[in-house]
Amino acid sequence: MSAPKIRLDSVSKSFGGSVVAVEKLSLDIRDGEFLAIVGPSGCGKTTVLNMLAGLEPATSGTMALNGKPIEGPGAERGVMFQDYALFPWRTVRGNVEFGLVYGPAENGLSPAERTERVERTIEMVGLKGSQDKYPHQLSGGMRQRVALARLMASEPEILLMDEPLAALDAQTRVILQDELLRIWGQDRPASERRTVVFITHAIDEAVFLADRVAVLSSHPGRLKQIVDIDLPRPRGDATRRSGDFARLCQSIWELIREEAYRATMN
Ligand SMILES: Nc1ncnc2c1ncn2[C@@H]1O[C@H](COP(=O)(O)OP(=O)(O)OP(=O)(O)O)[C@@H](O)[C@H]1O
């Protein structure tokens, strides 16, 4: 088997000495895989993502990317958060371009190539015709498409996504799940896909999108189980209606049910 893209080895993270957000997490993330992380509120999902992004150091343990230690943010990793974090004074085009001007693709692109990349990425996320609009003129789903385009414009090897669809209504969310899989490349050979780490509260979302779901438990955040999602690709509405899909969602819910109830009481 090939070396993992990302390797977490016994990674722990404490805050202020007393709060143990993540404890001894060991996890290999494969090149080109879509890995979802689920778990009850407060189990350390965001902390894991922030460490992978290089925004938070681990308290102990090691984190490696392509065999090299993760010591800070890097051009090969793009991060997307739940709130769109768009610049209200920039148009769609300006927001997407920002990902390039300040992103990993900053170097080596001519102005013409940059323009071409921005237009192509806007088209890819389905926003052709809205290039000159400002964020306040867009729906929540469209804003999240802009955030996705900004992330994709710099063509990072690894996409780190923290509940990117959580703020959307149910229908928009389903549509963007489909779009995300298309953009990720579910129709292409596995070797041409990017590596995705996707945090979500929603079990059905994790099962629909991912190759594997890492289930965390809380206080302290530990890896409870990794569930292989062997649903065939490409996935779509037929996947959501299938018995296998329902069974996988149910088995993950059973893994976290007790803690999820407890989390809502605290
Ligand atoms: N900067 C911080 N300082 C102190 N404690 C923190 C900090 N960041 C996170 N924590 C604590 O670490 C634990 C894990 O938090 P984290 O946000 O990673 O969990 P989560 O699983 O993403 O939660 P949620 O699903 O509610 O977003 C929580 O107990 C949280 O209060």
UniProtKB/TrEMBL annotation:
Molecular function per GO: ATP binding; ATP hydrolysis activity
Name the UniProt record assigns to this protein: Taurine transporter subunit ATP-binding component of ABC superfamily
Matches recorded under PROSITE patterns: ABC_TRANSPORTER_1 (PS00211), ABC_TRANSPORTER_2 (PS50893)
Cited Gene3D superfamilies: P-loop containing nucleotide triphosphate hydrolases
Family statement: Belongs to the ABC transporter superfamily.
Sequence ranges assigned to domain ABC transporter in this UniProt record: 6-243
Keywords: ATP-binding, Nucleotide-binding, Transport
Natural source organism: Mesorhizobium plurifarium
Encoding gene per record: tauB
InterPro entries: AAA+_ATPase, ABC_transporter-like_ATP-bd, ABC_transporter-like_CS, ABC_transporter_ATP-bind, P-loop_NTPase
Taxonomic lineage from the root: Bacteria, Pseudomonadati, Pseudomonadota, Alphaproteobacteria, Hyphomicrobiales
Pfam families associated with the record: ABC_tran
Cleaved signal peptide residues: none
